[in-house]
Amino acid sequence: MSDTVAMPEKAVVQFDCRGTAVGKMRNELAIEMVKPFKEEFELATDEGKFHGGDASAPPPLAMFVGALTGCIMTQIRAFAKRLGVSLNDLKVETRIQWNWQAVDRVYETAPKSFEIDVLIDSPDPDDKVAELIETAKKGCFIEQTLGVGNTINHRMKTADGWRDV
Amino acid sequence: MSDTVAMPEKAVVQFDCRGTAVGKMRNELAIEMVKPFKEEFELATDEGKFHGGDASAPPPLAMFVGALTGCIMTQIRAFAKRLGVSLNDLKVETRIQWNWQAVDRVYETAPKSFEIDVLIDSPDPDDKVAELIETAKKGCFIEQTLGVGNTINHRMKTADGWRDV
Fold first, then answer.
1. Nearest CB to A135: which of B91, B106, B139?
2. Chain B nearest C-alpha distance from A46 (Å)
3. B149, A145: Cβ pair inside 8 Å?
4. Do A67 and A58 contact (CB within 8 A), yes or no?
5. A131 CB within 8 Å of a chain B CB
6. How far apart are the C-alpha atoms of A29 and A19, rounded to whole Å?
7. Which residues contact B3 (CB under 8 A, 6 or more apart)?
8. Which of A2, A66, A106 sits opposite B52 (nearest CB)?
9. Is the ipTM, as predicted for this complex, more than 0.85?
10. Is the pTM of this model over 0.90?
11. Which residue among A9, A94, A142, B58 has the highest number of C-beta atoms inside a 10 angstrom radius?
């Protein structure tokens, strides 16, 4: 969200996604911003041929690293105007690593490292640019989400109704 | 990753993203899977017109909820074969909420709730389907990442080299 939006002091932002499995590994994703505004988007994920998919769309992890990178970049540009920092150019380079371990017939994963390098071309002092990055981190929905341990509640649909999993 | 991949017992999975800011709020994202295989993807984010963008691509949060949904769906399908669960149909409905709060000239955000509803049409017993979902949660890179507080290391490029932010 940028500074052209009239937002109240506090708000809830909600995104929903309805995913439908099609083909071998493709997921068609109907995404809706529900609050505070209504917007709809169509996306899809797939896996490459050597992962058993048809490579018809990017894999979920490509979308994930792209979402994180796009989020912090959006925040930097939105907040630059508010903090009076001039941006001639902005590039961000993100690297994410996960550990992957085979366990019986399946596998388990865990995050290993997150690195974000910010390249800003600005006539303003380094300290002002650093303040802009600090402020953007706090405004970046995805960064703030990754910084805390989140509880994800799962349910499965059964003949008797929803069951917690 | 599905079961067609020959993976060692342990591995590091790495995704990089190089984002370039263009136009008003658009970010062009060159994404590379670096380990354990090389693959490249091109994505982009933008914001809607009332957020100061040109709506030329989905916003980062749409990609984020899509990545999470696609990740758990991919894991459910990959692991169903390994656990011997038949899937006639798979749908997943995800809802994510964040709190948004104005602070001085900018704003801050925090995650509020994550809900994932799984709709599986299977002839197998509910307990086997529940086990599949539990196993998929542990194999889902993004779920496992969201479940822990992650440290994200930022650097900014200066005339004197990299500076931690």
1. B106
2. 8
3. no
4. no
5. no
6. 4
7. A52, B78, B81, B82
8. A2
9. yes
10. yes
11. B58
